[in-house]
Amino acid sequence: MSRIGPLSGFPEWLPSQRIVEQHVLDHLRTTFELYGFAPLETRAVEPLSQLLRKGDTSKEVYVLRRLHDDGADIDEDALGLHFDMTVPFARYVLEHAGKLQFPFRRYQIQKAWRGERPQEGRYREFLQADIDVVDRDTLPFHYDIEIPLIIGDALRALPLPPIRVQVNNRKLCQGFYQGLGIPDPEAALRAVDKSDKVPPAVVAELLITTAGATEAQAKACLALAEIATEDTSFVDAVRALGVSDPLLDEGLDELVRVMEAAREYQPGLLVADLKIARGLDYYTGTVYETRMIGYERVGSICSGGRYDNLATEGDVRYPGNGISLGVSRMLGVLFGAGALSASRSVPTCVLVALPSEESRVACDRIAATLRRRGIATEVSPSAAKFGRQIRYAERRGIPYVWFPGDGGHEVDGAGGGEVKDIRSGAQVPADASTWTPPDEDLRPRVIAAY
Amino acid sequence: MSRIGPLSGFPEWLPSQRIVEQHVLDHLRTTFELYGFAPLETRAVEPLSQLLRKGDTSKEVYVLRRLHDDGADIDEDALGLHFDMTVPFARYVLEHAGKLQFPFRRYQIQKAWRGERPQEGRYREFLQADIDVVDRDTLPFHYDIEIPLIIGDALRALPLPPIRVQVNNRKLCQGFYQGLGIPDPEAALRAVDKSDKVPPAVVAELLITTAGATEAQAKACLALAEIATEDTSFVDAVRALGVSDPLLDEGLDELVRVMEAAREYQPGLLVADLKIARGLDYYTGTVYETRMIGYERVGSICSGGRYDNLATEGDVRYPGNGISLGVSRMLGVLFGAGALSASRSVPTCVLVALPSEESRVACDRIAATLRRRGIATEVSPSAAKFGRQIRYAERRGIPYVWFPGDGGHEVDGAGGGEVKDIRSGAQVPADASTWTPPDEDLRPRVIAAY
């Protein structure tokens, strides 16, 4: 027998969990479309040269090879599975620039793959939901405010734990490091990015060894990273550290604008958190990470920011701002905690009981009438005893069983019968062309237990 | 600069085409759910041992390798991308049998990959929409009738060319070949499966060389493959060939039952076509292929059938019946023919014009009011001249531009203003809390030109 079983890092859901996931995806998509984001999908593969554009071979890319290829070498024309949506999107924009209207807003909900060591909330195959806005040459600043608010809007109507978006600005950090006189500000950014995973002493050590900081400079960097405020008081806290630099001023000003606008639209959603750095080196301004309250241990579930140079062709730049919601990470941890489930494991609202195999045509007609009216309906797979047919419905959570004709004993084919709510046992006469279930029974519901 | 451009066999759509694709997918999903099929997704990869279960290494599987793996050997623990949904589904059923309710109905809409030579309608990455019903031990015959009718029901409400489902039965062919005395009936089936691609003389030659048929037997096989009827008259045509075998009788009887029921439910959808064999060797009874009328050249867009032995574990069998709709093939050929498009390239119904950057907060409020009422709305990216803002809407096909306040000159923030239909030029006073666009403008429409 061939190997049957789970593969570490490749999560699969049961149908009732997939019902929850689809509910979440439908709502995300509806929200993104209400904001005018167009749908997009890109191919799953990119040439390795695209995936490793900045010469960064640290990414755990899955490389494809056809079974019958004999060559075992990986060259830069080899194809790899994409590890995010941002790199393929940048390529798509350059490739199709002549057919797109700028500023271009799109959402993209797709799987991505990374060959990393799996752990809680970190998978090898995972679903992401991205929104991005890109423009030609320049992108107005107001998108830096809009993007996290759209995510806040999308998630608050879902039965998920509350979230907190942590915002920072690369210019602020880089300007601070420059103003301090640190030799390699980019290395300093990468060191501070590890604040969530390692203790401050280790970050300090990294600042000294990789960024060339003195002990006093490292201490100032740590002091900056400790600043986190729900209002704009972070400005005074930064100023108190006594560093000045024009880029620092620009970063402070941008972060103030984001925080002030957010307070106007969605108070409490954003926090200015100056330790947020984002490891990816294409960010150039505002950056975001997002924690689910109560589930901070799995890290950020939604990250992104402003990138000014990701896509360039000759003299033309396509600056953008975007954010990526880790759907698998978010749902995986909630499923793992037993915190999210569906009210039933099938879409079916009504099971039409089958008195005899001869009455299947009449029962199919009742089902067709209900379906035309938007009511998901199955006909019983066999003419077993009614008790067994009711158990068929019960085991799946189907709320209603329809007994055709005269309580199921005579089938007239006219769509009449009796319908039983198998939870309460209540049974009433009904006609398929007029009977309607209560709204809350029509589709499976998502149930949250926090 | 890194390589930017299309990859042969990996199709990508423009946003307006993706809008069409999503419309099709939404409708398929809604239909499948109305019939009680539960949603499911499986991981994109399977161990090679699963993908090549019957020792068939002819499949052009993409094998994965991590970038930093040094071993270049492909062993059977290597992971490959799935080439259909059926093999992963069979594995999923065995793996999760204890948590599923049988008969188990599921739909699965996912990408699959094959490293084949690309041609019209044949891609290396493609989207499939599958439905299957599996049961433990035995699966009632009525599903053989239901499955193609569900596809007929799903497709007829979409703006696609009409379809014709060709049905045959493996038992009928195999019984006929046995009754004839052909030494290798399975090889005969594979030879006849090529009828669509090569002339009859070549099929005859294959029957002789690969299945051990005599010339007279080969002629009889070709005569059988020529029979195609819209009613049950195929029975007389087969009987006239003078072959008899118990398995042939069983196959004829099953095909009659499918054709009779289909005439009752959806007259004209099915044709009994005895050349349909389906290359895949897991089918054991009823088989289906589907042609789009006018686009027969791209081959079958929807294929499947009954399989009795795909998933077995010890003594337990999980027989099933399922069908797979080739969404990429179907849409790729229609997009290529310019036969399908969307009424606009964005979901946006209303663009709120921006009189000045200072009025952005007031304009955002108007947009939020419209969105809460389900109307997709963008605020203009900049306070350019109104003429330019109207062109922004025009280029995307956004039908309405909202001028806040007093025709756009004064913004009161109360949600009032004037709304212009930029197609007719008609402009009327409107309030964001009550104004509603005509139904046909609310979302992008799919436009078919056949």
Explain the overall architecture.
Two copies of one chain form a homodimer. With 450 residues, chain A is of the alpha+beta class. Chain A has three domains: 10-160 and 296-341, BirA Bifunctional Protein, domain 2; 163-292, Bira Bifunctional Protein, Domain 2 (BirA Bifunctional Protein, domain 2, 2-Layer Sandwich), CATH 3.30.930.10; 350-448, 3-Layer(aba) Sandwich (Rossmann fold), CATH 3.40.50. Helix content of chain A is 34%, strand content 23%. Chain A has 14 helices and 19 strands. Chain A has helices spanning 15-34, 48-51, 86-96, 142-156, 170-180, 185-192, 200-210, 215-225, 234-239, 246-265, 327-336, 360-372, 386-396, 439-442, and strands spanning 38-39, 45-47, 62-66, 79-81, 104-113, 125-134, 163-169, 228-229, 270-273, 286-292, 302-313, 316-326, 340-342, 350-352, 377-379, 400-404, 416-421, 427-431, 446-448. In chain A, the strands form four sheets. Chain A has a nine-stranded mixed sheet. In chain A, strands 15-14-16-17-18 form a five-stranded mixed sheet, sandwiched between helices. In chain A, a hairpin with a 2-residue loop joins strand 11 (302-313) and strand 12 (316-326). In chain A, helix 1 runs antiparallel to helix 4 (142-156), helix 5 crosses helix 6 (185-192) and helix 5 (170-180) packs antiparallel against helix 10 (246-265). The radius of gyration of chain A is 28 Å and the shape is elongated. Chain A starts with 14 loop residues before the first helix and ends with a strand. The relative contact order of chain A is 0.12. The model of chain A has no long low-confidence stretch (mean pLDDT 93). Chains A and B meet through helix 1, strand 1, helix 2, strand 3 and strand 4 of A and helix 1, strand 1, helix 2, strand 3 and strand 4 of B. Strand 3 (62-66) of chain A pairs antiparallel with strand 3 of chain B.
